[in-house]
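So, can you check this one?
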Amino acid sequence: MAIRKGLAKPIGSLTQMGTIRLGKRTESRTPAIRDFVPLAGLDDIVFGGWDIFEDDCYEAAKTAGVLDAPLLEAIKDELSAVKPMSAVFDRQYVKRLDGPNVKKGKNKKDLAEQLIADIRKFKADNGLDRVVLLWCGSTEIFLTESPAHKSLAAFEKGLEESDPTIPSSMIYAYAAIHEGLAYANAAPNLSADIPALMELAQKTGAPLAGKDLKTGQTLIKTIIAPGLKARLIGVEGWYSTNILGNRDGEVLDDPESFKTKEESKKSVLDYILQPNLYPELYEALHHVVRINYYKPRGDAKEGWDNIDLVGWLGYKMQLKVNFLCRDSILAAPIVLDVALFMDLAKRAGMTGIQEWLSFYFKSPMHAPGLYPEHDLFIQSMKLKNTLRYMKGEELITHLGREYYD
């Protein structure tokens, strides 16, 4: 809203500030991504959502304390108009939160139908052509696939029986995919990445992406680790700890929610470093992840990394990183990007998992039988090549040819 008014710049957003090279380097064709592919414009976006608290977006933003008062006041009218719908929520899955603005229903199928009604009403009331749904709710407790997740029939039976292995996020995912919406999971919990909802997506043509947005410490990991591996520098240990005091930190202070986040954050290095291919360099890696709730930090998260390295002839070195970041400020532009790219995918008829959007996620969804790509630079190339493919441009391989007589 601030960007639409010319009050701020969309820093961190690939869709708004990024460019894409086309053809040979000598051609000097580098348009803005937003001009190259037909993305929805910022003036055409309407925001809505659900929350367990009744505050409108202006009040919620004041409570969060992330944005400065002058900026909030400048967009007060627009923010105040965004009022949350009552949410599907169960403390069984997020134990450190509770709120009054919660739906009631006879079973989880009833709750899903209420969400579907909300989506249809939101679309009609705002005169929208399309809707994208992003799950940006709190991290739920750690769950693994259950019999209720194996097929669409089993899942819908589970909804009717209020199966405990179907958390709130899955009910939102079901509602979105049922309506054929593009759906992305910005949190690490099990959501659309189950066979039942994959099956539903194939029926309704819904694009899927996730999971767990790559914002602070893991963003830095996916920048540093590929460089170390490219130079074949050994990594003996990687200790990561986070200090944060926002609601996310409060939720992750619960061990069951932390387990979900830990799994998402720890898998990154295994896939980037490939210890199965480089056992002498990475097989003995000791990787530790900690998250500590510390209220005074608020949204200004601090991420500490200590990396124990092994170099030429076995000599040891260390790399230490202290990232003083702002969680929401890093997340906001990629929420926007994911929404716009998912809308583009839907319009392009791209159904199911959108692996080309792995760039944005800690635990990218991937096709069965494949391993997920975590290297940020490979992910970036994959994303831009997908855009080139959509527009019939030559894919960039960086393979140069020189001919000599």
Strands lie at 50-51, 85-86, 132-135, 182-185, 207-210, 234-244, 286-293, 302-310, 316-324, 352-353. The mean pLDDT is 92.
